[in-house]
Amino acid sequence: MQKSAAFMMEADTLLKNKFYNSLISRLYYSCFHALLLTKDLVSKTHSGTVSLLNEKFVKENTFDISHAAFFKNLMNERAQSDYDDFIIFDEAQVIGFIQPSKEYVGYVSKLIEKYISQNPDNIDKPNLFS
For 80-105, what is the mean pLDDT? Predict the structure, then answer.
């Protein structure tokens, strides 16, 4: 979770300095890296990661569908902020992503804590739910 936390701290700095497009990207990567800790998810694309999230978590009822939908939405916003030359986010557009991103990372952290408490012999695995 260190990488996820570092990206979240970067997001706070970017907000203070009004780098809104970069802020969306950091929020996305904070959520992305929190997710990668939970299963051995490997995808060549970000949209493939969303598909794996739905297939390996949501369909198995181990991940809240609203958090999965938020992650997909944030991924789409991140793609726009990184690749669309004509998209320039402002504070009003990005402010609504900050708290949900923190809640998402907190949600994933609780899933990890729950798994560790129920499976103490597996805590040395690099990806916990594999």
Answer: 90
